[in-house]
Amino acid sequence: MNKYSYYYFQNALSPENCQKIINLGLSKIEERKQLGYSTEGVTSGNKQKSAVLKNNSDVIPLNDKTQEEILKENKISYVRDSEVSWLNDQWIYDLVYPFIIKGNEEAGWKFQFNVSEPFQFTVYKPGGFYGWHTDGNGDHFAKYKRYIPGITEETWYPEKKLPPYYTMDEKMIGKVRKISLTINLNFPGEYEGGNLKFDFGPHTDKERYKECTEMRPQGSIILFPSYVHHQVTPVTKGTRYSLVLWTLGDPFK
After folding, report:
1. Angle at Cα 4 formed by Cα 1 and Cα 213, nearest 5°?
2. Cα separation values, 36 from 41, 54, 80, 164, 242, Å
3. How far is it, in rounded angstroms, from Cα 205 to Cα 216?
4. Domains (ranges, CATH) in the chain?
5. Which tens digits make up the pLDDT trace of 78-120?
6. Average pLDDT per run of 10 along the chain, which is 253 residues long?
7. Which of 70, 73, 221, 244 has the smallest CB count inside 10 Å?
8. Does residue 141 contact residue 208 with C-beta atoms inside 8 Å?
9. Which helix (H) or strand (E) holds 20?
């Protein structure tokens, strides 16, 4: 068990840079809408809101509930309700990467990594949430595979959405997610709810469920191993803006 289940840097990004990222992310969302593309945040297995509603009329949001609680209610649920865009501007990597390197060292993880995915800018409006999930398992089954247009069975490329664990980026092939990063872009008080919450498992020697209140100050960066279960609780007021990044390396041995 890791000494640090997550690591944080408060007020790491300036308010000016946070607003610059928000403006850029919102403009990218609008660009996709103008092109007729979906801006919905997707999930592995298509468990996001639109995909579940497409095939079922009587569905409920997973919200802060566990799958066991949903099963007891005998309801079909969706696990994500948010909008996203993707950013790969070098100046954002230059801002963030020193914190990844420092946090990985100071937390004692010392994970090997050598590439990162594009940043995911995420908008959670009132009622928006992301239920319990992990970002990656870290084993060989979770490696990114090469996406070949016209050959790979499932094709989402017209909207630039690839099937899970497929990529067209040569640097990502054979890699797995090692470190997840989340940045709070909002001023304190601009939204309520929308808490990053961890589940460290039933056998932890720590508190099992932990709301990460350390990320509330604007520009705060939270790092955690990508295999840790986590969620974003429903936003009850205002709009939550966040920036997410996954750093990749070779599968754990």
Report:
1. 130
2. 15, 18, 21, 22, 24
3. 25
4. 7-249 (2.60.120.620)
5. 889 999 999 999 999 999 999 999 999 999 999 999 999 999 9
6. 92 98 98 91 83 80 82 82 96 98 98 97 97 93 90 64 84 97 95 96 89 96 97 97 98 93
7. 73
8. no
9. helix 15-34
